[in-house]
Each structure stands twice: as C-alpha cells, then as structure tokens.
Design brief:
This protein has 450 residues and is of the alpha+beta class. It is built from 13 helices and eleven strands. α3 packs antiparallel against α4, α7 crosses α11 and α10 crosses α11.
Length: 450
C-alpha cells in the first residue's frame, strides 16, 4: 500500500516548505548582519574604501548565513535530539548521506569561486595604473614615517633669484629643476591619484590607513607600492593642519620597542588650490631657511621629520613629543661631547656628533644597545643638527667648542628671501607642474635616525 505524501513535501519525504522558509530567513539574517558594516568601520575616505567595503559586505552576508545555519542546526539538535530522562541507551548509528555530502561540498566550492573572482577584480582595481598619479617617496623607519615631495620654483607667485639660494638648494635644482623637501605627515587633496613608493630602512613595517581600508607591508631591500584616491566624506576623525581632514596612518607590523608610537596622519586638503598653497609654503621654507644653523637644526628636529624623537628625550623639545627612552637622553649632550665622549672616542665634539649621526654603531653609549639605524640626513642638515645640539649644554651655559661646519653649509642661510607683502595664489601653470617623484635609488639603503 503506497504511503501518503506529507503535505508541503516531495514524495521523498523532504519538507520543501519548511526548508524554503528557513532558507529565506537565513538569507535575510545574513543581509542584516552584512548591513552593519558601515557602523563598525571608519568613514570611507578613499575610492578604494568603497570597493573594499562592498566586497567585505558580501563576505559578511555569506558568513552571516553560514553562522546562522550552523548555530541554528546546533540549537535545533540540542533541543530535538536531547537524551530523554533515564535514557542511557546509545544513539542511532548513522553512516553516510551522499546528498548531504554533495551539497556541503558544492555550495562552499561555488562560494569560494565567486569570492575569488570578486576579490581578484578588487585587487586589480587597487593596483591598476592611475592617470596623472602623483608619486611620493615614502620611507619607514623605527619609529616614524617620512614623505618626500618635489615641486618647481615657479609654484611660487614671485620670481626667485637662484644665485642667492643656499648651495644645497642650488645643487638640488641642478638635478631636475625641482625643490625637494621631506615632511613627517602625508599631504594630498580630494580627488588626487596618489602612488606611494615605499621603502623600509631597517625592519619590516606596514603602511595602514584604516579610513582608506589600505594596508601594505614595507619590506627592507624592496620598493612596495600602494595607490589610493581620497574622496570627500562627512565625519572625518580629526581636523588636521592647514584646514585639512586628517586620518591616522599607523604601522601595522610589530617593529620594535616604540612600535606603538609609529603613527602619523594623512592630511587631505579640500581643494587642489589649498594643496598647492601648502606645497608653495613648504618650498618657500626650504629655499629660504633661517641664517642661524642652530635655529635651522632646531626647526628640523622639532618637525620630527626624522625619527629621533621616538628614541631620545630632549627637554628643549618636550613640546614636540621628544620623550623616547630607547636611546640615551640628549639633554646636556654638548657638554658630554666635549668631555666624556671625547675622552672615550678620541674625537673632537664635531667629529663625535657627526659620527654618532652617520655611524651610530661606531661608539655605543654604555647601558644601551646598538639599535640606532644609519641615517639618510643630507650633509648640511646634519651640520644644522650638530649646531643645535652644540647649544644643549648641561648647565645651560654657552658651548665651549666651536662649530666646524663645511663652507657650503655656512652660507646656507644666504641672502634673498621672499618679497614683502601678501603671497598671491600660485598660477594654474604652477599647479599643473607641481609634481612629486619617487626617492632616488641612492636612498634605498639609507635610514633616518632613531
């Protein structure tokens, strides 16, 4: 006698309607879980963030369906098949279900293939060539970030007599007619296609901007690249300098004792004109430095362009976060350079400080390890730093030794300077010519100081 089919089921006994209802509920639940993506992540501050978030949302929906299915089956099994009171017998011996095995193999395989295709499309978009991309040389060192920009002199709204500029600037202009300068924070503007050529000068670091959804390892001996385009968003986390939207840039790879201090900001200017005005201001500061080398050295160290502040403490620069404890304190370093350090090394104060900057392993201060990397500080900037450190005596008195800087650095302050009056906005031609280039290969093995 034939069995009567169960209402709402196929003749094989599978309850079609309940399965369909459960499937719909699982999909709805997965979509609800995926919909929380915007609330748990920082604002989307780059075009790439939108692509990555879309992919992540799809993965979260699929993951939510799987999570609800597994947990639902677990709860159902606990309730449905729990042992009855006083039942000490063994459970039913079940072995094999071809249909079930095909289903749980085929569905994950399809999901993996789909996610692979979507991920590959996003990956290709992230690394695709960008039209008119601005290339910025980026150096990562324990424990700071360093960004190199280049711009032409005609970005300034007035004529500059090159013959009056510091020798280092003239040498720089002779190479490619561009003025180079380094800053510890990344600057860009909304809509600019940016490409970073990144180099590590010591250990592995990782460039990570959560609001951009971008992370890229920075590996010693290699140049790694990351590309992005900032977009306008509401609710930026910080208000940066120069009226910018600022987003934290962190190192996501444990790189040493002060890894937690290795962060800076990406400053996104609202317009290209604002960005160009900042660029012109930095060019002006570069080509017209103060004539006093000690003042130039203090300005350089207080800018934290190099990583000295993350390893050393110096009371005169305490307001600029000079509170590191990895290296010896620099308070009173001028007195020690002329006293105990001169006795220990046989060098005069100028030679000792110069060697300490460029060959930090030549003499290790007792009680400290050889952790300071080799520097990439240009020659005249090195002597500016020495001139400033010369003023840091133990008792605050005048230094007892003379500065022995090279002639080309002595005149680095030079005559000239910007004309008086307000500075006009740079021309459109200057804006179009303000480009950045990657760091030269010569800097690949050089490292900022710690």
């Amino acid at each position: 006698m034939a069995s009567t089919p169960v209402p709402g089921s196929r003749s094989g006994g599978y309850p079609v309607v309940p399965i369909a209802i459960v499937t719909v509920l699982l999909i709805i639940g997965g979509i609800l879980i995926g919909s929380i993506t915007p609330s748990i992540l920082p604002p989307q501050a780059s075009a790439e963030a939108q692509q990555i978030d879309n992919l992540f949302q799809i993965m979260l929906v699929i993951g939510g369906v799987v999570f609800l299915l597994v947990q639902g089956l677990l709860v159902y099994s606990i309730i449905k098949f729990r042992a009855k009171a006083n039942d000490t017998s063994d459970g039913i011996n079940l072995h094999g279900n071809t249909t079930l095995e095909i289903v749980w193999t085929a569905i994950p395989a399809v999901v993996v293939v789909v996610l692979t295709i979507l991920s590959w499309n996003v990956y290709g978009a992230l690394f695709a060539p960008r039209e008119n991309a601005t290339v910025i040389g980026t150096a990562a060192a324990r424990f700071n970030w360093n960004f190199e920009y280049q711009a032409p002199l005609d970005i300034l709204p007035y004529e500059v007599d090159v013959s009056t500029l510091p020798q280092a600037v003239k040498d720089d202009l002779a190479t490619d007619n561009l003025v180079s300068f380094k800053v510890p924070q990344l600057h860009t503007y909304i809509g600019e296609n940016v490409e970073l050529d990144m180099q590590s000068v010591d250990v592995i670091h990782a460039f990570w901007v959560p609001a951009f959804r971008l992370k890229q390892d920075v590996i010693p001996g290699r140049v790694t690249t990351i590309k992005f385009t900032p977009i306008e968003v509401d609710g930026a986390l910080y208000q940066g300098e120069y009226n910018t939207e600022a987003y934290p840039l962190k190192c996501a790879e444990l790189c040493g004792a002060a890894h937690g201090a290795m962060y800076t900001y990406v400053n996104v200017h609202r317009t290209e004109a604002d960005y160009t005005a900042w660029l012109a201001n930095m060019v002006e500061q570069t080509i017209f430095p103060p004539p006093d080398p000690a003042l130039r050295g203090r300005l350089l160290l207080s800018s934290n362009t190099y990583a000295c502040n993350t390893c050393h403490v110096l009371g005169d620069l305490a307001e600029f976060n000079w509170n590191g404890n990895v290296g010896p304190a620099l308070n009173g370093v001028s007195t020690r350079a002329a006293g105990s350090r001169a006795s220990a090394t046989g060098q005069d104060p100028n030679q000792y400080l110069y060697t300490a900057i460029h060959e930090p392993g030549a003499y290790i201060v007792p009680g400290y390890n050889n952790l300071m990397p080799v520097l990439a500080i240009p020659e005249c900037q090195t002597w500016d730093i020495i001139a400033y450190l010369r003023t840091q005596t133990a008792d605050g008195s005048a230094p007892t030794w003379e500065l022995d800087e090279p002639e080309e650095c002595v005149t680095a302050g030079g005559p000239g300077g910007p004309p008086p009056g307000d500075v006009a906005e740079p021309s459109a031609e200057a804006t179009s010519e303000a480009t950045t280039e990657p760091m030269s290969e010569a800097t690949a093995d050089a490292t900022p100081a710690g």
